[in-house]
Design a protein that fits this description.
Elements (H helix, E strand, L loop, with lengths): L1 E18 L2 E5 L9 E11 L4 E6 L5 E7 L3 E15 L11 H9 L7 H7 L9 H7 L9 H15 L1 E2 L10 H7 L1 E2 L1 H14 L4 E8 L16 E9 L3 E6 L4 E2 L4 E7 L2 H4 L2 E5 L6 E11 L5
Parallel strand pairs: 7-8
Antiparallel strand pairs: 1-6, 1-15, 2-5, 2-14, 3-6, 4-5, 9-10, 9-13, 10-11, 11-12
């Protein structure tokens, strides 16, 4: 059964001095996947860009490049989408040991998996190491099913790491996150990816949103949601399985995918360059994910 969501993502920058010019790369519009359809989407930028180009990047994500040449003290970006999502069915993945999945990516006994190879290699923010391999091994005994092992690894990350907003930044080294065992969804996804790649498996970073429930007895608050991140592991010949270590679950029909990449650096929601003499910037982000009733 499908679920439909309306997603609003607003970002506002306020600068201490006039900016001229600014260039931004935006990953804010959901993509289509095997279990997701983007029904409608709009993207507005204020001030009006002097140049805007929409395209698909190397990974098939929807990207908007915008350039603003007029002097400005604020930059407002608003994206609104309606997306239909169905549950990821696991019956199609069958039984495949993690060693078979690893060998399928490498091409042992046949051709390498073209899409998987790039996600088995090191990326700017995630590098394989013996430290991460050692952490992963208890979840990957010989012959264990790759999906079962990945879910177990995700559960261990959820149990061993503390969700602590504000204790890490986007550029906090992954080794520091692993040592301190604190972070946010982005960090948990990176740790899981590093573990999987350290065993030779292909793993990718997933950027998106999660429809969240309010506390018991309290109404859902507009703007209470935030951007979310999780990871996928490749089962060669079957597809990708999405796992959410932050919430200790497989990604389901409440997870909305915006973009796939090797790590966060490939799919940052808003990235770019500004030119200003100012030294301070105020950033406000409001995200709301609301279920759309079936009758709507």
């Amino acid at each position: 059964m499908a679920a439909t969501y309306r997603i609003l993502h607003r970002t506002e920058y306020t600068y201490s001095s006039v900016v001229v010019p600014s260039y931004s790369l935006l990953h804010l519009l959901p993509r289509d996947t095997v279990n997701q359809r983007c029904l409608t989407s709009t993207l507005h930028v204020d001030p009006e860009p002097d140049d805007r180009r929409d395209h698909e990047d190397f990974f098939g994500n929807r990207v908007a490049y915008v350039a603003i040449h007029a002097p400005h003290l604020t930059l407002r970006i608003s994206a609104e989408s309606v997306v239909e999502v169905t549950d990821q069915g696991l019956s199609l993945f069958g039984q495949q040991s993690w060693e078979q999945a690893r060998d399928g990516v490498r091409g042992v006994g046949g051709a390498a998996h073209d899409e998987g190879v790039q996600f088995a290699l090191d990326s700017p923010r995630v590098a394989a190491s013996e430290t991460f391999a050692a952490y992963a091994r208890p979840s990957f005994p010989p012959g264990r099913d790759v999906v079962e092992a990945a879910v177990d690894l995700s559960s261990r990350i959820h149990a061993d790491f503390t969700y602590a907003p504000g204790e890490t930044e986007v550029d906090t080294p992954l080794e520091e996150v692993f040592e301190r065992r604190h972070g946010v969804c982005q960090d948990f996804a990176h740790v899981g990816i590093a573990c999987l790649r350290s065993l030779g498996l292909a793993a990718r970073y997933v950027s998106g949103y999660l429809e969240t429930d309010p506390p018991p007895g309290r109404p859902k608050l507009t703007g209470a949601d935030v951007s979310h991140a999780w990871l996928s592991v490749l089962v060669p010949g079957a597809g990708w399985v999405d796992v959410d270590p932050t919430n200790d679950q497989l990604a389901g029909d409440r997870h909305v995918v915006t973009a796939y990449g090797r790590d966060y650096a490939d799919v940052a929601p808003v990235g770019g360059v500004i030119f200003t003499r100012g030294t301070t910037t105020e950033l406000k982000v409001v995200v709301d994910v609301a279920a759309v009733p079936a009758e709507a």
